[in-house]
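Internal ticket #5521
Category: modeling
Description: The requester needs a full-assembly model to guide mutagenesis choices. All entity lines are attached below as received. Residue total reported by intake: 262.
Assigned to: D.W.
Attached entities:
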Amino acid sequence: MTSRTPPRTSFSEMMRRGQVFSPDCPSREVLKHVTSRWGVLVLVALIPGTQRFSDLRRRIGGISERMLAQTLQWLENDRLVDRVAYPVVPPHVEYSLTPLGREVALRVEGLVEWIETNLGQILAGRTTAAE
Amino acid sequence: MTSRTPPRTSFSEMMRRGQVFSPDCPSREVLKHVTSRWGVLVLVALIPGTQRFSDLRRRIGGISERMLAQTLQWLENDRLVDRVAYPVVPPHVEYSLTPLGREVALRVEGLVEWIETNLGQILAGRTTAAE
DNA sequence: CGGAATCCAAGATGATACTG
DNA sequence: CAGTATCATCTTGGATTCCG
């Protein structure tokens, strides 16, 4: 078992701060999708409205088809993104934020904008390349 | 070179939505640290106040020494976390949020709390395990 | 056009051992 | 206590190819 000392978190404490600190909290899963390298950008990119796969691909610099598809599936499965495929040829698929997705997206956008705004101070006195 | 078609983002567009969509935007670097698997939890864990290395280790379930150390270094380098080492034996090191760090931490906390609150709806109709 | 499948390189993470 | 170094592993991400 070699169980690590279990979190000393009291019940009230758990209620107050949530349970993300627990290793197997399901929130971590969603958090992982939302804060993933591409998840953040996909969510923010969808804020202006419905977009097609290739629109997103172009908009999000550097993303590969594979990652875009996977990220969209994660978010769709988390009910944050809606996917509508029209049965035409060539295929036409539209992605948009669900009401739920819009909420997270706005929060994530806020975070991103904060970083961009304060980037100057952050990079100010860097010593190492910091990876 | 095989250079991918450069982002077609117009100037005004860049100014409006920031430049995170550009593959080499430095914001992505910081974003990566802040939204990393452990970065999120470290920031939130530090909100209540100064803590020692082992405090954080215990608080954040599942994190390894290695990852905690590395994450703290990223955040310190990004000027989001302050590190104070007392020259005593055994070592005593304290970590805390900088004013800048506190701002991000609060935003991140908001995001985390939102997810925990809406977790029910998110997991509601899951079909796949969604990794 | 919008993927799915495959193969492979790079990076993240963990366990362990060692040190000031 | 607070790390660092090393090694093994698992995951992420990218390039390519193929398909409806």
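Resolution: model delivered.
Comment from assignee: The radius of gyration of chain B is 19 Å.
Ticket closed.
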